[in-house]
Amino acid sequence: MGLLGAAFVSLAALTSAASIPNSNVKRQVSQLRDKYDFVVVGGGTSGLTVADRLTAAFPAKNVLVIEYGDVHYAPGTFDPPTNWITANPDAPPTWSFTSLPNPDMGNTTAFVQAGQVVGGSSAVNGMFFDRGSRFDYDAWTEVGGPEFASSNNKWNWSGIFPFFKKSVTFTEPPADIAQKYNYTWDLSAYGGSTPIHSTFSSFQWADQHVLAKTWKEMGIGSPKECAGGDKEGICWVPASQHPVTARRSHAGLGHYADVLPRANYDLLVNHQVVRVVYPNGPSVGPPLVEARSLADGHLFNVTVEAEVIVSAGALHTPTVLQRSGIGPAFVLASAGIPLTLDLPGVGSNLHDHSGPSVKWNYTQPYTFFPLPSQMATNATFKAEATAAFDQTPARGPYTLAGGNSAIYVSLPHITANHSAITSKIRRMATDGTAASYLPPDIRTDPTMVAGYTAQLLALANLLSNPKAPSLETPWATAEPPYSTAWSFLLHPLSRGTVRLNTTNPLAQPILDYRAGSNPLDIDVHLAHMRYLRGLLTTPTMLSHGAAETAPGADVAASDALLAGYVRAQSTLSFMHPCCTAAMMPLSKGGVVGTDLRVHGAAGLRVVDMSVLPLVPGSHLSATAYAVGEKAADIIIREW
Questions:
Q1: Which of the two ends of the chain, N or C, has the fewest CB atoms closer than 10 A to its terminal CB?
Q2: Distance CA 152, CA 141 (A)
Q3: Cα dihedral sign for 333, 339, 343, 347?
Q4: Catalytic annotation, residues
Q5: What domains can you pick out in the chain, each with its CATH number?
Q6: Rg of the chain over all Cα atoms, to the nearest angstrom
Q7: What is the DSSP-derived secondary structure letter of residue 259?
Q8: Mean pLDDT over residues 185-197, rounded?
């Protein structure tokens, strides 16, 4: 097994020296302290949020964050010198994953990226800063059952909403910009003073209103604010950017650089946490943290006094736990890893947003200005856009990020067939067939079956709710070749896995998305696609001569043909992987409780998107901050 196998034989000795107060980023073990009160594994969105709050609350306690990546400048999604959502040469490194082929989706694979940088995915994402509906978070408590409902740590909407508010500072757009684009918002949904910023862009592409009018003609409403728990309709979504400079706002700034100097806050970069170690068993904690230098492979242990918080993300947290002997016993046995705790939920319950799209061409002249193509074809316009971005405050196209408008529509408002779909979900949850849709290696585990059954019942309730969105379609333009309406499946039923690479446990994990493995996901996809095709029959689209190019009327007329289109043409990950160390009772295959402590592991918590029981109907950045804020509050109260 090489390096990791040797690590399991004996504990590496800690080599350390006292650090200098207010010192900068650490790059080698000799710069560390002899011991730390708290160690955070992963310097991403949630991890840095926790580290910031703990170092502020406990100035006498030392906190170490260990991060695989380094400190990098993190440009916005659409900053100079890029064209429309093209790769930025200054973008920091990312992890790139390709899943195993999905047999139920034409053997296509999911491509997923995550931030390999201080700030994590908040430093590389699309900056789309939305929250789920209140019903998404209420479903977390529903899945947990009476045990979660009676907990002092409430993870329903009323329990997490204050931390959404705390997690971000929202700045109203200038009055002229708000009037120009008819931006609406409600300040009661915000209220934080954290240096994590969000605001609305000073710019929209000239044809943004075309789809906005189209959605209204389809009968979709326009709520004043979509971040306050009520989300069904056409939504303006803030971007995670500074209100003056329009630069990306991310955790590496707002929860690290902007809060320094703090003598008790250390950040070790370019190091991989191998595992946590319980020399006297998992009931005696906190564990040691074993890490290795990426520069020379040197292994060492960090002594922890209070607790370890694993915040390595939905794809890496399971592998840290599995290398620690915490996970499904059969996975650990196949890797030759001694069992510490048999928790089959570690690395299970993987899901993400996915979906196909409706595409069309315009047969009438499309003469709006400016459009994204002008960034590549009109040098004068691009130079003016760059100059506008450099103004104070920043103005113009480069402030738009990837766009800030989307529709969110519930299944009852999408199809008259919604009751039939949700009845099928409830039936499979109660007739014993639900287990057959789980990954084969866990479908006979009674706790995993119980948890999945609880999820299906909660999802059936969500999909029955006319105020709980099932579909998301973001947009910023419909200029050819961007004449596309994406269909995001917000509440998937299929479940995949994240498993340790048993031949090389230090390598990247193996992702099996298993998209479409629950066939009722296809039923929902079909409803979404038929609904979205309705946009092409609206007066606005007819006036522009919109002609459908995919999937087409003949395909849409047949369930079998449309299902084939969905299976072949879906994007299997919209970069929102979650739920692989789920916050659920142990009896339901959960990994952490409502206090985010790992079941049975003293002094060990998980705080990142892996703890979500169900993915909310939103992009995950805002939720990652809120989870970090709530976790920090729980930890501070306990200590």
A1: C
A2: 12
A3: negative
A4: 576, 619
A5: 3-8+26-73+252-348+579-612 (3.50.50.60)
A6: 24
A7: G
A8: 95
Is 244 annotated as ligand-binding? no
CA 404 from centroid of its chain's CA atoms: 17
CB-based burial, 395-416: b 16+ in 10 Å, e otherwise: bbbbbbbbbbbbbbbbbbbbbe
Q: CA–CA separation, 150 vs 261, rounded Å?
A: 40
Q: Which residue bears the tokens 């998980």?
A: 606
Band the pLDDT of 2: cuts 50, 70, 90. very low
Tens of pLDDT, residue by residue over 79-122, are: 999 999 888 899 999 999 999 999 999 999 999 999 999 999 99
Q: Say if pTM beats, i.e. exceeds, 0.90.
A: yes
Q: Are 498 and 591 in contact (CB under 8 A)?
A: no
Q: Is 25 annotated as a binding residue?
A: no
**Backbone torsions φ then ψ of 3, nearest 5 degrees:** -60, -50
Distance CA 217, CA 234 (A): 12
What amino acid occupies position 271?
Answer: H
DSSP 29-59: GGGS-SEEEEEEE--SHHHHHHHHHHHHH-T
45 is in an annotated binding site: yes
Cα–chain-centroid distance for residue 635?
A: 22
Contact by Cβ (8 Å): 11, 594: no
DSSP 98-156: EPPPBGGGTTB--EEEEE-BTTGGGGTS--B-----HHHHHHHHHHH-HHHHTSSS--S
Say whether 117 counts as a known binding-site residue: yes
Reported as a single tens digit per residue, the pLDDT across 352-387 is 999 999 999 999 999 999 999 999 999 999 999 999
Cis amide prior to 286 (ω within 30 degrees)? yes
Q: What pLDDT was estimated at residue 23?
A: 53
Provide the strand spans (E) within 341-424: 341-342, 357-362, 405-410
